[in-house]
Design goal:
- The complex is a heterodimer of chains A (about 350) and B (about 240).
- Chain A is of the alpha/beta class.
- Chain A contains 13 helices and 14 strands.
- Chain A has a 7-stranded mixed sheet, with helices on both faces. A 5-stranded mixed sheet of chain A has the order 9-11-10-13-14, with helices on both faces. In chain A, strands 1-8 form a two-stranded antiparallel sheet.
- With about 240 residues, chain B is an alpha/beta fold.
- Chain B has 10 helices and 9 strands.
- In chain B, the strands form 2 sheets. A 7-stranded mixed sheet of chain B has the order 2-1-3-4-8-7-9, with helices on both faces.
- In chain B, β5 and β6 form a beta hairpin.
- Chain B is globular and about 50 Å long.
- The termini of chain B are far apart.
- The chains are: A alpha/beta (about 350), B alpha/beta (about 240).
- At the A-B interface, α3 and α5 of A face β1, β2, α3 and α5 of B.
- The structure holds thiamine diphosphate (TPP), iron/sulfur cluster and magnesium ion.
Chain lengths: ~350, ~240
């Protein structure tokens, strides 16, 4: 077992080992430790740390690095991630890969420093203008955060897409034992600009918009087919399946095994990719759990965001008649006994389904 | 005897209007890059506006930046590729309105790159709206009664700001007016590139330029207007010389 390490530091070190050459960012709680750590760590390795004037500038610096086919990172939270959406949309348009860390904090506008899942819809729907999708990785432990951040760069380069690693205040601030992956060799992607004018630009005047769109959507479909990740418990006999990711997924992993040990027929679907949503798990559920009586999301936001995806994919996979509930706990980390009590309120009919 | 002047191979087809100053600057940049041997060592970061025509207009590696963000994008390119020749090409609206934060901060950090700003006193691409460089009293699509500087601020002089407040390597303002002035401008552009290649830091060259289409003038009248009304307000010359 590795050393104890704080989530934000661990994820930053994972990016270093994945081979980032540049970090650009602007401080905001609860993600600031990432940049503080890298401000010492990157120069120590002869790499580049930039304190940008804003998140807007930071994402555009990342865009410049990515155009050259090199790896970089930017991290932020709340309103800082909002400012990055312009650059993210541009990178999606130009097929520039990038990895962005969103240490989610609760709320609209300035919000608060509490951990939450209030950015789910924004992250899974793209966030900026246009018709693009980002791969969204949502770990539940510090180790998983490290492993996903490390791999995120390979995924981003494979599809030349944006990968968002979505943690939250809780996961960023907690300490856990963690194994660090080895250092990757630094390399430049072959398509990166190098000043020699090898990359031909599409015709500026005679753009083929349907062609551009089709090419992009083909990529989206490949991402959707290949990149769904999840962890499942007890789908084979569950009457009620909880769906929860991140810190909620972590709570529910423990609680579902406890409830199953007590003889309750519950299961858990823990998405590891929020996009692409693990819809294949729904196909399995239809096969495996004919006695399914309800799907229940456990989320930290006002009225459930992921619940919309759960309902959509239930419908898509022939589970449209199964009621879909949301247990939204606004922010922080849901408590076991509160979730258990609310589950009882679902069973008693007091809490009604959302869909 | 007339000497034929070769069009630089870096220059390609750009769809600027007749009498537009953009094309002259583009050609001067291409000439300088060739003379400095940087044809196969250059990455441009272009703004949004009529600068977009550089996508077809110049045969070098190029990134289309979000509107106003070229200062930040070029910073990323610079840090990723320390040995490449990196320049931004932006309009006044791009660099001084929406992008003033990115422009000033790149200058403030003294990033080792060149910034070329075409100051044509308006937002050309979008149909001639007021920009921060629009002259006092100038009628534009969004200052139909003439620019009121009491309400909208006075025409902005960013090169002077940068030269006097920060520690850049080189700052100048030229104009696309007479052959003599265009030759001087070429000297400024070359200085800017040389400063970068010599790792001296940030350089900016602003270029006073015509936009006949949106000024509602024939090309000749636009040139006359530039010389008579714009140049007197926006002083030409070098505000920060190399090694000073
Ligand atoms: C975020 C954003 N806002 C607005 C626009 C629309 N727009 C395109 S070009 C432009 C102004 C360009 O003016 P300038 O930089 O002076 O360039 P010129 O065309 O005059 O050379 C604007 C407002 C945009 N592309 N992006
Ligand atoms: S609109 Fe103005 S700036 Fe743009 S190409 Fe025409 S003349 Fe030049
Ligand atoms: Mg302009």
């Amino acid at each position: 077992m590795g050393d104890m390490i704080k989530g934000n530091i661990a994820v930053a070190e994972a990016a270093v080992r994945a081979g980032i050459e540049v970090y650009a960012g602007y401080p905001i709680t609860p993600s600031t430790e990432v940049m503080e750590y890298l401000s010492a760590r990157l120069p120590e390795l002869g790499r580049t740390f930039i304190q940008a004037e804003s998140e807007l500038a930071a994402i555009n610096m990342v865009l410049g690095v990515s155009a050259c086919g090199r790896r970089s990172l930017t991290a932020s939270s709340g309103p800082g991630i909002s400012l990055k959406q312009e650059g993210i949309s541009y990178m999606a348009q130009m097929n520039f890969p990038a990895v962005i860390l969103n240490v989610v904090r609760w709320g609209n506008g300035l919000g608060s420093l509490d951990g939450a899942q209030t950015d789910y819809l924004r992250e899974t729907r793209g966030g900026g203008n246009g018709d693009y999708r980002n791969i969204v990785l949502c770990p539940s432990t510090v180790q998983e955060t490290v492993d996903l951040m490390y791999e995120a760069f390979d995924i981003a380069e494979k599809y030349r897409c944006i990968v968002v690693v979505m943690t939250d205040s809780g996961l960023g601030q907690m300490m856990e034992p963690c194994e660090m992956p080895p250092f990757r060799e630094i390399r430049k992607c072959s398509w990166g600009l190098d000043g020699t004018y090898q990359v031909k630009r599409p015709d500026f005047l005679g753009r083929n918009i349907p062609g551009e769109s089709d090419a992009y959507i083909r990529k989206v479909r490949e991402m959707r087919e290949n990149e769904q990740r999840w962890e499942a418990v007890g789908l084979e006999d569950a009457e009620y399946v909880f769906v929860a990711y991140g810190m909620c997924g972590r709570v529910m992993t423990g609680l579902v095994s406890e409830m199953r040990a007590a003889g309750q027929r519950v299961g858990l679907l823990r998405p590891i990719t929020a996009w692409p949503f693990p819809e294949k798990a729904f196909a399995q559920m239809r096969e495996k759990a004919p006695g399914l009586k309800g799907l229940i999301t456990v989320e930290t936001n006002g009225e459930g965001q992921m619940v919309e995806d759960v309902a959509l994919y239930a419908k898509k996979y022939g589970l449209g008649q199964v009621p879909v509930y949301a247990l939204p706990y606004v922010c922080g980390v849901p408590k076991d006994d509160v979730v258990k009590a609310d589950f009882d309120r679902i069973l008693s009919g007091e809490i009604k389904e959302v869909f | 005897m007339a000497v034929e002047k070769r069009v630089p191979a870096l220059c390609n087809y750009a769809m600027f209007c007749a009498g537009c100053g953009h094309g002259v600057l583009l050609r001067l940049i291409c000439e300088c890059l060739e003379e400095l041997g940087q044809e196969k060592n250059t990455i441009a970061a272009i703004g949004v506006g009529c600068s977009c025509h550089l996508k077809s207009g110049i045969n070098v590696d190029l990134v289309q930046c979000p509107h106003g963000r070229a200062g930040a994008v070029a910073t990323g390119i610079r840090r990723a590729e320390p040995d490449k020749c990196v320049f931004t090409y932006q309009g006044d609206g791009d660099a001084y309105n929406i992008g003033i934060a990115e422009t000033l901060n790149a200058a403030y950090r003294n990033e080792n790159l060149c910034v070329f700003v075409v100051n044509n006193n308006n937002f050309g691409m979008t149909g001639g709206q007021m920009s921060w460089t629009t002259m006092e009293g100038q009628k534009t699509a969004t200052s139909p009664a003439g620019r009121d500087i009491a309400l909208t601020g006075a025409p902005i002089k960013v090169p002077e700001m940068i030269a006097h407040s920060f520690r850049p390597a080189y700052v100048a303002r030229g104009a696309v007016t007479t052959p003599a002035e265009i030759n001087r401008l070429k000297g400024y552009i070359k200085n800017a590139f040389q400063a970068q290649l010599n790792h001296e830091g940030y350089s900016m060259v602003e270029v006073l330029s015509t936009c006949p289409t949106n000024w509602g003038m024939e090309p000749l009248a636009a040139h006359q207007h530039l010389m008579e009304h714009v140049v007197p307000y926006y002083q030409l010359g070098e505000f920060k010389k190399r090694g000073e």
